[in-house]
Automatic annotation (TrEMBL):
The protein's enzyme class: hydrolase
Residues in Type I restriction modification DNA specificity domain copies: 3-187
EC number: 3.1.21.-
Family to which the UniProt record says this protein belongs: Belongs to the type-I restriction system S methylase family.
Name recorded for this polypeptide: Restriction endonuclease subunit S
Species assigned in the record: Chryseobacterium suipulveris
Keyword Protease (UniProt): no
Keyword Plastid: no
InterPro entries given in the database record: Restrct_endonuc_typeI_TRD, Restrct_endonuc_typeI_TRD_sf, Type-I_RS_S_subunit
GO MF term set: endonuclease activity; hydrolase activity
Pfam families assigned to the protein according to its UniProt record, in alphabetical order: Methylase_S
């Protein structure tokens, strides 16, 4: 029987809070920075999405700790709202020059027990959102997730093979949704363009008719 077991995130993954800022220093390693908005707006990070990441720098220790590797998950650990925190993205490939910026947490699953994509989709569940909202610290315009709270995040895990099957299915569906959204965006833009063009036709037609009458 494939039983699901209850664990805490810190038992099945390494959790770090990034402190890499947006500054560029001549004596540090030049890198591309995966910033807060990059994590917030993207369900996954690949070479295409990382192509236009901002250039910054970090020291060797930061580089070793926060270089992005396939299978990792990054989440937002700070927010202005308690109900808009812990937003995740999945790192879908290895990078040699992309590091995670501050206000973010980098989670590296232990590969023998936790699939990164499965974790990424778990972060999207109602239970996960309620956990982060209820446990975020701070008040006013700054809420934050301390590292202990992230490590204590509750998970229910099936066998690793089952995790991968589930995450594979969800990944296919998610990519189809992304493609459909792009198509819809393009159609919407086309409609706006056509509408703008159509609105000009009567004006142009009247002008031409007027010119024809004058010529007559």
């Amino acid at each position: 029987m494939n039983r699901w077991r209850a664990v805490k995130l810190g038992e099945v993954a390494d959790v770090k809070l990034s402190n890499v800022d947006k500054k560029t220093k001549a004596d540090e390693i030049s890198v591309r920075l995966c910033n807060y908005t990059d994590v917030y707006k993207n369900s996954f990070i690949d070479a295409d999405k990382a192509e236009n990441f901002m250039i910054a720098s970090c020291n060797e220790n930061e580089f070793e700790k926060f270089i992005l590797r396939k299978g990792q998950v990054a989440i937002t650990k700070d927010s202005e709202k308690r109900d808009d925190i812990g937003i995740s993205t999945f790192i879908s490939q290895d990078f040699d020059d992309v590091v995670l910026g501050y206000h973010l947490s980098l989670i590296t699953p232990f590969e023998d027990v936790l699939d990164g994509r499965f974790l990424h989709y778990w972060f999207k569940t109602k239970q996960a959102k309620e956990y982060f909202e209820n446990n975020a610290g701070g008040s006013g315009q700054r809420c934050t997730l301390p590292i202990d709270i992230i490590k204590a995040f509750p998970l229910h895990l099936p066998a690793l093979s089952t995790q991968k099957k589930i995450s594979s299915i969800l990944s296919v569906l998610e990519k189809k949704i992304e493609v459909n959204n792009k198509i819809n965006d393009n159609l919407s833009q086309m409609k706006k363009t056509n509408s703008a063009f159509t609105s000009l036709l009567p004006v142009r037609s009247s002008a031409l008719e007027g010119a024809s009458l004058e010529a007559a």
